[in-house]
Amino acid sequence: MPDWKSLPTRERLIVALDVPTAAAAHKIVAAVGDSALTFKVGMQLYTAEGPEMVRDLVSSGRRVFLDLKYHDIPNTVASAVKEAAALGVHMLTVHSAGGGKMLRGAVEAAAGVSPSLVVLAVSVLTSMNDGDLQEVGVPRPVAEQVPHLVELALGSGCQGIVASAQEAAELRTKFGDRFAIVTPGVRRAGGSPGDQARVTTPAAAIAAGATHLVVGRPISEAKDPAAEARAILEEMK
Fold first, then answer.
1. What secondary structure does DSSP assign to 103-166, as a single string?
2. What is the CA radius of gyration of the chain?
3. Helical packing angle, 51-59 and 74-87, nearest 10°
4. How many CB atoms lie under 10 A from the CB of residue 231?
5. Is the dihedral of CA 112, 43, 185, 217 positive or negative?
6. How far is C-alpha 159 from the geometric centre of its chain's CA atoms?
7. How far is CA 6 from CA 145, 185, 212, in A?
8. Cβ proximity of 166 and 200 under 8 Å
9. Phi, psi of 62 (to 5 degrees)
10. Which of 8, 56, 65, 167 would disulfide-bridge 40, Cβ 3.0–4.6 Å?
11. Can you tell me the distance from the alpha carbon of 150 to that of 28, in angstroms, rounded to the nearest whole number?
């Protein structure tokens, strides 16, 4: 298991390629240059371009965070994780709400192909608030539902979780330091929150205990993506 606290700052930044084409994604990767090592391929880009996009990034020496949030019956998720591991991805996501059997199946499938693959469990999406949880039948507020799902995920063998930095400090206090916390919804001080309901700055996220930050539009839509990435790295330090 990696020593998450000792990771170089550059390895903590994940640039989200939330674009519809491989051409647009490659343009962002080229513009960011050496300022970042890891790039997120999510549902939009993967649906549009398929696994070839992942293969291209891996073959170029980049790391891929495959953010497809697998959530299905255990056998289906395990099979999907095996294929993702074979692509050479560095991290991938599953939904902790899928339950312990599904989570354990994903972890075992990853370990069987690529022991270094980090399986991350999504707790509560950063776009959701207490009212949204109630709408889907979850009576707990976000502050209680997140640690409940994190405990399930870590107990099932997941090496890390995805959660807002606003929950990170409490999760560190409750569960310790031996797991990764990947935090989306990160904006530099003064930046627009976009469609995220729970956002934080890079410095605050790291101080709260996040090990990795996912940043999309603030970098991809910047006039100078490389400069924006470097500025975020400086804030993270």
1. HHHHHHHHHHH-TTPEEEEE-S-TT--HHHHHHTT--S-HHHHHHHHHHHHHHTT-SEEE--HH
2. 17
3. 40
4. 17
5. positive
6. 12
7. 29, 23, 12
8. yes
9. -85, 160
10. 65
11. 32
- Residue 38: beta bridge partners? 14, 63
Tokens 């330090």 belong to: 237
Q: Which residue has the tokens 């991938």?
A: 92
Residue pair 167/202 in contact by the 8 Å Cβ criterion? no
Residue by residue, DSSP assigns 152-171 as HHHHTT-SEEE--HHHHHHH
Q: Letter for the amino acid at 201?
A: T
Torsion of CA 143, 145, 148, 149, to 10 degrees: -120
Catalytic residues: 69
SS3 195: coil
Structure tokens at 140: 């707990």
Distance CA 154, CA 25 (A): 32
For the question of whether the overall pTM of this predicted structure is more than 0.85, the answer is yes
Q: What is the mean pLDDT of each run of 10 residues along the chain (237 residues)?
A: 81 96 97 95 97 98 98 98 98 97 98 97 88 96 92 97 88 95 82 53 93 94 92 91
CA distance 69 to 150: 15
User: Distance of CA 56 to CAs 12, 112, 123, 196, 216, Å?
Assistant: 21, 23, 29, 29, 19
Q: Which CATH superfamily is domain 4-236 in?
A: Aldolase class I (3.20.20.70)
